[in-house]
Amino acid sequence: MRNHIVRLAILAAIAFAATPAAACRVYRMADIADIEQADLVVEGRISDYAIIGGAANMISYARFDVLVDDVLKGERREKVAVTWDNSTFGIPEKMVADPVLIALRYPVSETSLHAQTVISANADRGVFTVLQRPCAQAFIFKKDDVQAAAVRQMLRR
User: Is the pLDDT of residue 147 over 60?
Assistant: First the structure.
């Protein structure tokens, strides 16, 4: 009986150790100053949202399109293909249907990049990625949120 309990305790310890650990102890709001690092900032609606991967040996990431209503920074487009590797908070099962403000970068951008700003390792060549620092909120805000208003105000300066 004692051996059985010891084996169960060892198995439980292994199972606990094998689960992903939280990488962040403190979560932060997005730093609005990082908007300078964006190659494209648009308002629009997210469509065709899908999670890619997810098997035990693969990292999940999301792929979606943004149907653009307005371009606040960058080149005018009607639709933008995007990838998002949200390792800080995990990938949501679905996205909001409301209009959003979203800041994006090319995976290989000529603008300087803060050392802590994340560009997805899963980014497809030529596809934008969501601007997001580790342990911080991604630059995806509902269009009428306070953060979106702050981004618009900063871009007007």
Answer: yes
